[in-house]
Predict the structure.
Amino acid sequence: MREINQNKGSFGDDLDFLGKHQSVITLVASDDANAKALVVAGYQGRVMTSTAAGNEGNSYGWINYNLIESGVYQPHMNAFGGEERFWLSPEGGQFSVYFKKGYKFEFENWQTPACIDSLPFTVTELSSSSISFSMEAELENHIGTKFSIGVNRTVSMLDKQTILSSLGISSLGKCKSVAYQSENEIVNRGIEWKPETGMLGIWLLGMFRPGDKTTIVVPYTREYAEQLLLTDNYFGEILSDRLTVTDSAVLLKADGKCRSKIGLAPLSAKNVAGSYDAESGVLTIIQFDINRNERYLKSTWEMHAEPYTGDVLNAYNDGKLADGSQMGPFYELESSSFTSAVKAGEKIVHCQKTYHFEGDNNVLNEIAYKVLNIRLDELGTCFG
């Protein structure tokens, strides 16, 4: 098997590689031929990677080259990579659709549903800048509740004017940019969902290339809660040289060298998060729907006393497991939808926008300060 540097390579390299293993759709922004994204229906309609500078430009998504090249499907989960994929919540707890009834919340029993792991989505519409998918599935949660669902997903490239207006910024200056939006729906095809027997949510996860000088930035608000509703112990304590909380944002190192995860509840989260790679000069932002008065599903691997007090935003830094193995390295930015007791024919909807910027440092700094409440030159001095 050939060796590929997981942290370097152009968008064109990734296009060539993926094209040898799957049918790849290239989406292009309507006003910039260099702003592109690669989407694969065979990998559940996920955006594998994107670029702001054409085929010779940086490729922003993390791709699991070895797994894809092997052609061998894995137990539990197939981590193909990709900078935005569609998943379902909750992962753990009594309403989990990843653990069968009667099985403990242990790794050997964890199984990602095939509809979001190994089965393709069906393309329903396609243009040069947008693609739509659908999928139908039958699921059963940990206590035996059965679900019949339809999934609709549309990925659309954003033009420069939409980027400016969506983020509330006045100019991109000489910065290169690429952005896209995904609109996602779960349609209830069965009986009415009930809080006491379980409900489902939309979970969008993006896998990106880590770096020694890459920092995840999660701004927060104190407007809706007296204290910061941050979960930072998913995999044990995170030391201060990797996690710090400023007066406006939570910062997590994204070097792919230490397994760690954080989450923000909807009363503390803003509708944005991001990361900055100081070595490559790439600023990444996700912007997502948030509904502070709705229920959000918990996904920790345990029975939940309060299953609807989950996170709207999560961030993850990959690292070695106890046995020394490692899936990545990569880091993730994730957002989740609320859930609701939808009746047959009703739906849950969740939208997310993903942006990448590179170029003029002054402009990058202005964008980061406007959107993420932090100046990029502060990041190198924030950790203890």
